[in-house]
Amino acid sequence: MANTEKTAGELLQERLLMHPENGGIILSDEELEKAFAFCEGYKKFLDEAKTEREAVDLVVAMAEKAGYVPFDPKADYKAGDKVYLNNRGKALLMCTFGTEPISKGVRIVVSHLDNPRLDLKPNPLYEEAQLGYLKTHYYGGIKKYQWGAIPLALHGVIVKKNGETVRVSIGEDENDPIFCVTDLLPHLAREQMKRTLNEGLRGEELNVLIGCHPFRDDKASEKVKLNLIRLLNEKYGIVEADFLSAELCVVPAFKARDLGLDRAMIGAYGHDDRVCAYTSLMAELEQKTPSHTTVLALADKEETGSEGNTGLDSRYLEDFVKDLAAMQGETGRAVLAASTCLSADVNAAYDPTFGDVCERRNTSYLNYGVVITKYTGSGGKYGTSDATAEYMASVRRLLDEGGVVWQTGELGKVDAGGGGTVAKYIAKLNVDVVDVGVPVLSMHAPLEVVSKVDVYMTYRAFSEFIK
Ligand code: MN
Ligand code: MN
Known about the structure:
Elements: H1 8-16, H2 29-48, H3 52-65, E1 69-70, E2 82-87, E3 91-96, E4 106-112, E5 117-128, E6 131-139, E7 152-159, E8 165-170, E9 180-181, E10 208-211, H4 223-236, E11 246-252, E12 257-259, E13 265-268, H5 271-285, E14 293-299, H6 316-327, H7 332-337, E15 340-344, E16 347-348, E17 370-373, H8 389-401, E18 406-408, H9 423-427, E19 432-437, E20 439-440, E21 448-451, H10 452-466
Parallel strand pairs: 1-2, 4-14, 4-15, 15-19, 16-20, 17-18
Antiparallel strand pairs: 2-3, 3-14, 5-6, 5-11, 6-10, 7-8, 7-11, 9-10, 12-13, 13-21, 17-19
Helix pairs in contact: 2-10, 5-10
The structure holds manganese (II) ion (2 copies).
One manganese (II) ion binds at residues 112, 272-273, 302, 345-346.
């Protein structure tokens, strides 16, 4: 007969040691169903918003449906009122007024809507060897070789000289044409194969193939290019010079799909960081009368360093909190100092195929829940906001009491590389902040992978934080 009594050692282990889940989270059938259902909405969001502009348009529509109105710093608001501030159609702030006075601080969640991609150059269109191409300049940290020979779509806006804005989206509908960056056949790639991975495809080789039919004419030159601009003119009413005032992005043309026989994961373009944007958005939308006023920031430009007036190194978030403070006769600095923030961004999930870049005791794993990252940075914590022990304790308490499954993780081994998030820009405002997010496999690749359970637990974490 088995002895079910625990030994003194087992009891001591139970009381004193950490108990990481063995083999990932096992949720009840009911919770698992909720997590999977939640992710159906997330996949739709991924498919409908592939750039920060499309995401802002979509979120504004969702917010207005949920009762949010454009923010007016001169208006009077009461608990439960909902406002938003649209920063140039590329970044967004949302807010639900709380029952506590603003002097108690606000609860900020920040994430970003921009994703690594290929941006068109200002003068992109050219023809060579009777093929029509678009020149690109990549945006964010990509492995360039991953962008060759995959289906691509074109998204963005063109603003004509008269101010009229044309929205472009080609390659998403199954009846749309797609585009691609060509790569060299292996038979003739002997020299290319000797390049380093970084140079597998070079920046100036990321040229997007968009056509090959010449315009029928005996005299005109560059007839393929002419035919392409003719098609664009027919569809959008633009001329070549209108590319000069455009923001056109080339992104993967495929849709978000369930990944795995168990459908436990999602493979998609742009989880970083729309997964945190969507989960924090869902938590924000459902707030009725939170105790503290909530501020949800959906930022742009994180992937290129947060500079620019729609990035979080700009003052728009600070100014918004100052406006909230002024409404109740408080100073912005006092409100900021009393505020707390979750900086919501993805982290690298442990990938056993490339396990040697992680330190296994301090890395995050797929399907182990939302990951809390005390600090990021590189080379001796350089360039990081390191959350205080006090703030870490309050976040631990919050998540444990809310029944949120969570884990902790550093971004890779010491000196293996590193990276940063927007946390340091929030810390600059004198706000307590820590990084929270979803572990991702193949981060920044055209197809990134997340676990549905982690997505759901991240949503739960934000809900607990702002309720
Ligand atoms: Mn990110
Ligand atoms: Mn990123």
